[in-house]
Design brief:
Number of domains: 2
Distance between the termini: 30 Å
Number of helices: 8
Structural class: alpha+beta
Number of strands: 16
Helix content: 10-25%
Keywords: Acyltransferase, Transferase
Protein name: N-acetyltransferase domain-containing protein
Largest sheet: 8 strands, mixed
Oligomer: single chain
GO molecular function, one term: acyltransferase activity, transferring groups other than amino-acyl groups
CATH class of the largest domain: Alpha Beta
Pfam family, one: Acetyltransf_1
Family: Belongs to the acetyltransferase family.
CATH architecture of the largest domain: 3-Layer(aba) Sandwich
Length: 420
């Protein structure tokens, strides 16, 4: 069933219908709207996304997802229907806080904090054709998606948008009742023509999905936004592996002992991260670059390839479609954890180079201590990505957390790669 509403333009009576996305019928028209919405400012660099013919690619790996389209048709000719907007949404269960065990049955250590979970919805990919804005279509799409969230038991809904996207911020905070919640940083580093040298005194272990799951559940489960179905993430075909780094002098073994043994007696410093292959989901392209900028970028790549031992930074070929790898689940402990994070990022860079990617990206809390070890180019990165959140109902999971939208930010967040 669709939702109808009236609108006007040039004296013509129109009807807006919000309905389920039909991949067979709507794919081409949805792609046309995406292209119209991604027209960048004249003379400025703009980032374009190609969803590789799959409009729901950015949500299809979530436990529950939906896509809606807004269709406009003139009353006189119902065949002249045009898709003028779309929205995507997904639902999962994540950590929203922590509490102490009330008895010894739920934990071997009653003083150890336990995660408090909530059912969280995420809105992304809201688009309204430029020629049909200011007609309430965006609000209509959001309201319909929120109805689906509530019907499926979601307690909160959140969105991510650029801090300077005033139209989007105003829609969600002024009209939809969302509050500004978190401001994580998106850090992006180019993939150079040379391999990054890794420190010889660092061991990097690759964990199996089951071992990585055990590790993350024991050390990360009380971090905000940690997905309860972390096993689904780690076993997904797009997950390229979980990697843990230690200094060889403090952990001389070259074989991974298993998460239980490692955590029973960990070294003073360690770091971990996982890598997700976004390249097979979507590609990016920078448009609007001048011939001079393109020429300079090409020159840096030629020099880098000719003299790789110099380890010179080069601008990758971002002026045609390129892929990226996303680093997530980043964490660590110890006084030298930042150095180990830097080594892991170098390892991830080399993996991306082998697989033909243009950039490596991650998203971390603005207060994350380990961000100092993440190499990135400021021009490619976003210092403040804005997350806005809304409480969908009066009932919520646990009284010890209260209203999550009013809770203070922690040092870290867990960014789900399925929604990047």
């Amino acid at each position: 069933m669709g939702e109808e509403g009236g609108g006007g333009g040039g004296g013509r009576v129109v009807v807006v219908v919000v309905r389920e996305f039909d991949p067979d019928k709507d794919r081409r028209r949805v792609e046309e709207v995406e292209r119209r919405c991604e027209v960048g400012p004249s003379g400025e660099l703009s980032l374009f996304t190609d969803l590789l013919g799959d409009p729901i690619c950015r949500v299809r790996h979530s436990p529950a997802f939906r896509m809606l389209v807004a269709e406009m048709a003139g009353e006189e000719n119902e065949k002249e229907k045009e898709i003028v907007g779309m929205i995507r949404g997904c639902i999962k269960t994540v950590t929203c806080g922590k509490k102490l065990s009330r008895n010894g049955r739920t934990s071997n250590d009653p003083t150890k904090p336990l995660p408090v979970y909530t059912k969280l919805a995420y809105i992304l990919g809201l688009r309204v054709s430029p020629s049909h804005r200011r007609m309430g279509i965006g609000l209509k799409l959001v309201c319909r998606m929120e109805d689906w969230f509530r019907d499926n038991g979601a307690e909160y809904s959140y969105i991510a948008t650029e801090n300077d996207n005033q139209a989007s911020v105003k829609l969600f905070t002024d009209k939809c009742g969302y509050s500004k919640f978190r401001t994580p940083s998106i850090l992006v580093n180019p993939v150079f023509a040379h391999r990054v040298r890794l420190p010889k005194r660092v061991h990097i272990f690759k964990l199996s999905p089951s071992d990585a799951e055990a590790f993350y559940r024991r050390r990360f489960s009380i971090i905000e936004f940690f997905p309860r179905d972390i096993d689904s993430v780690l076993n997904n075909k797009l997950n390229l592996g979980t990697f843990l780094a230690v200094f060889s002098e403090s952990y001389p073994t070259e074989s991974w002992p298993g998460s239980d043994s490692f955590l029973a007696d960990p070294p003073e410093s360690w770091a971990v991260l996982s890598v997700w292959n976004c390249k097979d989901v979507f590609t990016l392209e920078v448009r609007g670059a001048s011939r001079v900028k393109r020429g300079f970028a090409k020159t840096t790549r030629l020099v880098d390839r000719a003299f790789p031992w110099l380890q010179l930074p080069s601008v990758p070929e971002v002026f045609r479609p390129f892929g990226l790898h996303f680093m997530y689940g980043l964490g660590g402990e110890g006084s030298r954890a930042v150095k180990l994070v830097k080594a892991l990022c170098g390892y991830a860079h080399n993996l991306a180079k082998e697989r033909g990617c243009g950039v490596v990206a991650t998203e971390v809390s603005s207060s994350e201590p380990l961000r100092l070890g993440i190499p990135h180019w400021k021009r490619l990165s976003c210092a403040e990505d804005l997350w806005c959140m809304k409480r969908l109902g009066e009932d919520y999971s646990d009284g010890s957390v209260g209203d999550w939208t009013k809770s203070p930010a922690g040092l870290s967040i867990f960014v789900d790669p399925r929604e990047f």
